[in-house]
Design goal:
13 helices; Rossmann fold; 16 strands; about 375 residues
Length: about 375
């Protein structure tokens, strides 16, 4: 049974040790960084840079605490992510969201190059075959995965597994394109966008949100380039008139997330990855969307573990106990206390990704929770 360390978001005393940054310091001490990382060792701190308008990412103050803890043992950390948009633009987004060398105390770099094609093909599972793992993540000897727990248009629930799978894999490969990147997970590369002209109000939200400019309108008619589209589903999500449909297989998608996560983890020696899940500002959407709605649940706290499956299961168990917040998307959908909020929001069987990760040997769902 794996151990998951936990610190609540509540601060009941007026002292630094009861603040969340202070508790994160204690969590990292309890985890024992020297059990995983060595002096002079490069350590990637994998997080999500967010998007322009999406400001509810893991806050710089928390990433800085991780950096400082690693530096205290003599390690050499840096903060990284794979590109979702063009690399220079993505670094500017990171800077706008407060992620830079000055704020986090370490270099902030792109893991798969400014064009997102700096990657190495790695064997995955039966569904994916192989995927393009970002070369920096592939080559670095150690990593701390800092995940902002939230909802997700495809995964339903997004935590460490999604951060590994979609964040550790590039969007594209030099020869086989998006079908070898994270697009291989989105609808398993099979979805064809369907447009209902009669329902469309030509609001152009689908065009504006596409990260690849795969959608355009000519003479009030939608044109879709299926060759460059990686099937992320953002266009369908933002269509408020349901004029767009992108068919997919939810079960295979969840399984492919676990496969991709395994491929990323497999590039590290055993015992060289630590996971931190932040149950803070739990919004309904992914941090890659160009906005951030209000949280649908109250902040829960921070979890730390060396088992990606255990930390995911512990995070989900906590979310299932959390009531919906008023004046949020949860209240819009009239979700009641004790209901599965993320399932009600997205109708995605998100637990499959955790079950499949356990089946693939990435960890175990049973865990021992140690609260500090």
């Amino acid at each position: 049974m794996s151990t998951v360390f936990f610190a609540s978001a509540r601060a009941k005393k007026w002292r630094y040790e009861d603040s969340m940054p202070g508790k994160l310091e204690q969590l990292l001490k309890e985890a024992g960084l020297l059990n995983y990382f060595s002096p002079d060792e490069w350590v990637a701190i994998k997080t999500h840079f967010g998007s322009e308008g999406a400001h509810r990412t893991v806050r710089p103050v928390f990433l800085r605490k991780v950096v400082e803890a690693l530096k205290r043992i003599g390690a050499k950390p840096f903060v990284t992510d794979t590109v979702r948009i063009k690399g220079l633009d993505y670094l500017e987004v990171a800077n706008q969201n407060g992620l830079n060398h000055l704020s986090v105390g370490a270099p902030v770099v792109i893991a798969d190059g400014l064009y997102g094609k700096d990657n190495i093909m790695v064997k995955a599972g039966d569904i994916l075959g192989q995927v393009a793992v970002a070369s920096l993540i592939h080559d670095v000897p150690a990593m701390i995965v800092c995940s902002h727990v939230k909802g997700h248009i495809n995964a339903g629930y997004a935590g460490a597994i999604k951060n590994l799978a979609m964040g550790g894999v590039s969007s594209s490969h030099r020869t086989c394109g998006w079908k070898c990147g994270r697009g291989a997970m989105h609808t398993i590369g099979e979805g064809e966008l369907v447009w209902d002209k009669d329902k469309c109000e030509l609001c152009l939200q689908c065009k504006d949100i596409c990260p690849l400019d795969a959608i355009s309108f000519k003479d009030e008619k939608l044109e879709w380039d299926g060759n460059i589209c990686w099937r992320c589903g953002r266009c369908e999500r933002v269509c408020q008139n349901e004029s767009l449909k992108l068919p997919g297989d939810d079960e295979r998608f969840m399984q492919s997330l676990a496969e991709a996560a395994k491929a990323v983890i497999g590039t590290f020696e055993k015992g060289k990855i630590l996971y931190i899940n932040f149950l803070t500002e739990i919004q309904p959407e992914c941090d890659c969307m160009p906005m951030a709605d209000v949280p649908v649940m109250q902040d829960g706290g921070i979890l730390v573990s060396d088992d990606p499956v255990s930390i995911e299961q512990a995070s989900i168990d906590m979310l299932l106990k959390s009531p919906p917040l008023p004046d949020s998307m949860a209240s819009d959908k009239q979700i009641k206390p004790e209901e599965d909020i993320l399932m009600k929001l997205h109708n995605k069987p998100y637990a499959i990704q955790v079950e499949e990760a356990e089946r693939l040997g990435l960890g175990e769902r049973s865990y021992s929770l140690v609260e500090i």
